[in-house]
Amino acid sequence: MNIAISKLAARLLQSSLLAAFLVGQSYAADQHVVFATQEPFAEKAGATPAIAVVDYAETERFEAALLSPNCDTCGETSCGCDSTLGCDSLYGPTCGTDAACLANGLGCGNGWLQAEYLMWWSAGMPTPALLARASEQNPAVGTPLVGGSAGDLLEGMRSGLRVRGGTWLDNCQTVGIEFEYLFLDTIDEFHSVGDNGTAGSAVYTRPFFNVLTNQPDAELVSFPGVLRGTASVQAEGDFQSAGVRLVWNQCQQCCEGCGPCGPIVNKSRFDLLIGYRYASLDENLLIRENLQEVTPPETTFDIFDQFTTTNRFNGGELGVRWQEQYQRFSLEMLGKLAFGSNRQTVQISGRTLATDGIDVVDAPGGLLAQTSNIGTYTRNRFALIPELGATVGYAFRPNWKATLGYSIIYWDRVVRPGDQIDTSVNPNLLPPATNTATEPLRPEFQWQENGFWTQGISFGLAYNR
């Protein structure tokens, strides 16, 4: 009997302590207090309850687990960087700091790599009228077919690739190094006109301004009963850019003493960018003619003018980058300004090869490239390259994010082939020149600068380690 009463008393005591534990647990969850709980009682009569003290002041660490009791990624020994108040493994089971949860919008880890496909458009290449169609009555004045009022060259869409990567140099992610490389596919454009010179055929010309008559003039490409031939214009351009920079954090919402992190809901950071920038813009413009007289001796002419420009920029770069992350979504705003030296180079060449089947004339100079302006010219100029960008991202799996962005880059002082063309020509200098000392010596070379911009959208993938 005494044994039964003892067992009943033990059961009642166990129930009372369990009820007290449940009430204390509910109160502690709200008030962050320290309370006592108990180990299971032994079945033996007279067993003494074992009391253990548990600190619930770190309730936040377990919020996600409370919301999702079947998930254990937010365990007692891991910070469980989650993308929302729910407990998930989007950013991995652990991370060293609260700042690492953001990690440039890429999740946990000290390094990141991003690759983007670029669908961009660039400023066209302006040129004077290069090819025209005219009438038999007035071949000197025609309607531009290439260049001039017909529009700029190289205005089409260009594909490209941009790669960015970097690593943090400290656990709290306040200082890092980042590199970037960008290129656009070489863009080219080709136009050709011509006719056979028979009666009623079209009249095609290459316009210029005659400095001897002070009147518009033209070189014939095809003319009924006089000349058969073709003339072509080919243009191409290439743009690249690269840089390396120091990423210096100025403000971040998520780093609190570099302590363990909790579930991510809304994180942001603001970084200062200091580094080096390289950029290159190479373009080429070639005008070529293949002509033959209709009447004997049917002399043939192979004529070309070529204008090539290169721009090489080297300088420092300053910028800012702001990033905001909300659950799986992120937004990045970027602004940079590079300043430095642009080495400009202009190459002008031309040649005429004529033969009547017996004699051959091979002389320097075409039409717009003559001995008066042929050569290579180089100089250095101070230049600026500002850049603006915005990117949205969605983290679709651990350490991976898809991105969609827009960027625009402007280069304020560049040389471009079409700007270096002088359409004023002294016909006496056309090869074979009748008098090389004839004044004025036109065409001539004069430095001409222009601006260049490129902009468009990007589709990318970002990965962090």
Which tags fit this structure?
465 residues, mainly beta, Lipocalin, 3 helices, 18 strands, 9% helix, disordered N terminus
Describe this structure in words.
By secondary structure, this protein is mainly beta. It has two domains: 2-57, no CATH class; 107-253 and 264-464, OPCA outer membrane adhesin/invasin (Lipocalin), CATH 2.40.128.100. It is 9% helix and 53% strand. It contains three helices and 18 strands. It has helices at 2-31, 63-67, 98-102, and strands spanning 34-38, 51-55, 111-122, 131-134, 143-146, 157-168, 175-195, 203-210, 215-222, 227-252, 266-293, 300-326, 329-355, 360-364, 375-397, 400-414, 424-425, 450-464. The chain has a ten-stranded antiparallel β-barrel. Strands 4, 5, 8, 9 and 17 form a five-stranded mixed sheet that branches. The protein is elongated. The two termini are 68 Å apart.
The residue ranges in which pLDDT falls below 50 over 5 or more consecutive positions are 1-10, 15-108, 255-264
Task: Report the major sheet.
Answer: 10 strands, antiparallel, barrel
> H/E series, N to C?
HEEHHEEEEEEEEEEEEEEEE
Oligomer: single chain
Structural class by helix and strand composition: mainly beta
Top-tier CATH class of the largest domain: Mainly Beta
β-strand percent reads over 45%
Q: Largest beta sheet: what is the strand line-up?
A: 3-6-7-10-11-12-13-15-16-18
CATH superfamily of the largest domain: OPCA outer membrane adhesin/invasin
CATH topology of the largest domain: Lipocalin
InterPro entries: BBP7 (IPR011446)
Protein name: Outer membrane protein transport protein (OMPP1/FadL/TodX)
Organism: Rosistilla ulvae
Pfam families: BBP7 (PF07585)
